[in-house]
Specification:
This protein has 403 residues and is an alpha/beta fold. Helices cover 31% and strands 27% of the residues. The chain has twelve helices and 18 strands.
Length: 403
């Protein structure tokens, strides 16, 4: 049973755009291995039965993003309604603290950055346990590198002793009444410049104890942070999925009167369109068949027969996502896709990267796991006569071991 005397405030009110990779979403809502960062962070705390309540402070403009991120927790009573954050981190924390007080003040509170989704249960419990003896607890890691201080011109002016120096992380834990009072006092005195809650506590005269953090408890700040985290999580998942399979797919569509073709989910201006019952995205059709083939689960026609009027004009991404859902239902994941487009026209080169990005988005994989190539048919056959386009696709999947 959850101990309602320990609550969590997750600070998610920042705009967080330094990690943008072409997405409009702030970093706390960016997808990491298929799930929003904030969803992963919330899940890490709700997985610990010592946590009684969680409240998230969000930006007023992010309501729709937040609602989507917390949809998996619709039946979780411990997740309280979100609160609107303020112009500073301190203001957002205060809003979370006041929301907890209004719902019956807890004895202890942990304050955590939304962009730290890798917090472990061990770190959480060390922070909570330290509050039996101190008013505050700071998860941190020892600094092992030599520290240098430089001037404005980049010249080293001092070597800073690293003895007793720690790099602060979150969660930072406090006795609730003490940290609430410290934040209220800081606001009343116009102090809104503290970089973390431990600094607020120190200024207010509270005793804060360091507890061992975790080097893996990284704060995702830049796009490189996300790429490294995605790679790490992907490799971890691969290690647990030893059954490697490769499927192949092939499809062809003829040209018909029109003004564009759709390939890999990208519309390309052309003197004709591709003829088909759906949007005739021959590349997505071939890739769907490749995944279904690797699963041994029929083909696109078996699951989406062209005789069914529901699929008339449908976005072919629907078919690909269905194949991916079948893969996920088997506990598997997509490792790599490779698409070869055989066409005399239109030219694929100018659109190749847009196609790779769209495939990566639909498949929820890193873009370096997506290949798109193009070739002509040397003016031979129906492709050479510019009567249509053919596509060959391959997909590598990984599945749990068979029973």
């Amino acid at each position: 049973m959850s101990d309602r005397s320990t609550a969590v405030v997750i600070v998610a009110a920042g705009r967080g755009l330094r990690a943008a990779n072409g997405e409009d979403a702030p970093k706390q809502y960016r997808r990491l291995a298929g799930r929003p960062v904030l969803e992963r962070t919330i899940a890490a705390f709700l997985a610990d039965p010592a946590i009684g309540r969680v409240v998230v402070a969000i930006h007023p403009d992010h309501r729709a993003l937040y609602d989507a991120a917390v949809a998996p927790f619709a039946d979780e009573a411990r997740l309280l309604p979100s609160v609107l954050g303020g112009a500073s981190r301190q203001a957002s924390v205060r809003a979370g603290l006041e929301a907890l007080a209004a719902a019956a003040a807890p004895a202890r509170v942990l304050i955590h950055d939304a962009a730290r989704p890798f917090v472990s249960r061990d770190v959480i419990e060390r922070a909570v346990a330290a509050l039996d003896e101190a008013e505050g607890a700071l998860a941190a890691v020892r600094v092992v590198d030599t520290l240098k201080r430089a001037d404005a011109d980049g010249r080293i002016v001092e070597t800073v002793p690293r003895d007793g120096v720690w790099a602060a992380q979150t969660p930072q834990g406090f006795r609730f009444a003490a940290i609430r009072a410290a934040h209220a006092r800081a606001a009343a005195e116009g102090r809104d410049d503290f970089t973390d809650d431990a600094a607020v506590a120190e200024w207010a005269g509270l005793t804060v104890r360091v507890v061992e953090g975790d080097p893996a408890n990284l704060k995702l700040t830049t796009n490189d942070d996300f790429l490294a985290a995605e790679a790490r999580m992907t490799l971890d998942r691969f290690a647990a999925l030893p059954d490697v399979r490769v499927g192949q797919g092939y499809d062809v569509h003829a040209f018909a009167p029109g003004d564009h073709v759709t390939l890999c989910g990208v519309k390309i201006p052309h003197a004709a369109r591709l003829d088909g019952h759906s949007d005739a995205d021959v590349a997505l059709h071939a890739l769907t068949d490749a995944i279904l083939g690797a699963l041994g689960d029929g083909d696109i026609g078996a699951h989406f027969p062209p005789s069914d009027s529901r699929w008339r004009g449908a976005d072919s991404a629907l078919f690909l996502r269905d194949a991916l859902a079948r893969l996920a239902a088997r506990g598997g994941m997509l490792a790599h896709v490779d698409v070869t487009i055989v066409a005399e026209a239109p030219k694929i080169g100018p659109h190749r990267e847009a196609m790779r990005r769209r495939l990566a988005e639909i498949c929820e994989v890193a873009i370096d796991r997506v290949g798109v190539k193009a070739t002509t048919n040397e003016k031979l056959g129906f492709v050479g006569r510019r009567e249509g386009i053919a596509v060959l696709a391959a997909a590598t999947i990984r599945l749990p071991p068979s029973d």
